[in-house]
Amino acid sequence: MKTIITILLIAVGFHANAQDKFFTRNGTITFFSTTPVEDIKAENFGVTAILDTKTGNLEFSLLMKSFNFKKALMQEHFNENYVESDAFPKSTFSGTIINLPDVNFEKEGEYPAKVKGELMIHGQTREIMVDGTIEVTSEGVVLSSEFPVSPADYEIEIPSVVEDKIAKQILVTVNTELEPLKR
Amino acid sequence: MKKFILIGLVVALGAAIAGYFYVQQPVASIADDPAYGTYSSEALYTYFEEDEAKATEELTGKVLEVSGEIAEVLVNSDSSTTVVLRSAHPIFGVKCRYEPSATDLNVEVGEMISIKGVCTGMTADVEMNQCVNLNRKS
Question: ipTM more than 0.90?
């Protein structure tokens, strides 16, 4: 991911129109698990994302250890037992806006978007398609989406002793404000 | 016999209360934790850039002290602040996020600053969380 972003940014610097590229290094992604026993929420405020409005290409990258939990024990179990952050420190998404012609990046407004791409969690990559919203503002572009992720799909094992505390489907929320890339 | 049952109940109740508070503990501040290492932001970024796997294995999860020039000040969606310390890279550096409770930071672009925080690895920037300011060098 780092390589992709670096190459893209260098390319922007030398060849392309920077106004086609929108970037953030402090986007927000949260996840929420709810069961009758317990609700678990974690937030990551250090998401790196880049959007190329000409091609519709989107890249997201985050560090699993940058998820903040309210309870220390939850954070410890998340990193050590479930997502194994030492072995798999990052999660990435690489995809494309498939209804790009429906989004007018020159006109402020809110546009429904469909994004297809590859989500990598816990070292496992799966193709996903998600619905979301692209809001074009005077300051940039806001990407928003909510979609479910099943830990089992990414080979995240939940011990039977706590399986009634963790939902089978985790709700992931993306809320990321990107600004035009400055050279 | 009743006495033993009563003692057993008191012990069980004490264990349950202790367990409850243990489970409910918030993430502890690292303000008083000793630093594993001290780096300039240039040196830390370069260390990760040159061998990310090695740096990740060695430094992720560790409390580090990092000094450098503030290249950017960002306000996050929870109103917490992130500063980006400059590296040799033209765009990326060391990204340090303070807790939302840190409201009186008065950090400015161009200022030299020393920060302590937990290193969480590298995406495009090297990342630090739970950051606190140390002495300022301006």
Answer: no
Q: Which residues in chain A are closer than 8 Å to B125, comparing Cβ atoms?
A: 25, 48
Cβ-based contacts of B77 with chain A (< 8 Å): 28, 45, 175, 177
Instruction: Kindly report the CATH number assigned to the domain that includes residue A142.
Output: 2.40.128.110
Residue B6 structure tokens: 């009563």
Tens digit of pLDDT for each residue in A2-47? 555 665 565 555 555 557 899 999 999 999 999 999 899 999 999 9
Q: Which three-class secondary structure state does DSSP give residue A14?
A: helix
Domain layout of chain B by residue ranges: 37-136
If you write DSSP's letter for every residue of B54-108 in order, what string do you get?
HHHHHHTT-EEEEEEEEEEEEE-TTS-EEEEE--SSSS--EEEEEPTT-------
Give the domain range for residue A141.
Answer: 2-180
Dump the DSSP string for B9-30.
Answer: HHHHHHHHHHHHHHHHPBPPP-
According to CATH, the topology of domain B37-136 is OB fold (Dihydrolipoamide Acetyltransferase, E2P) (2.40.50)
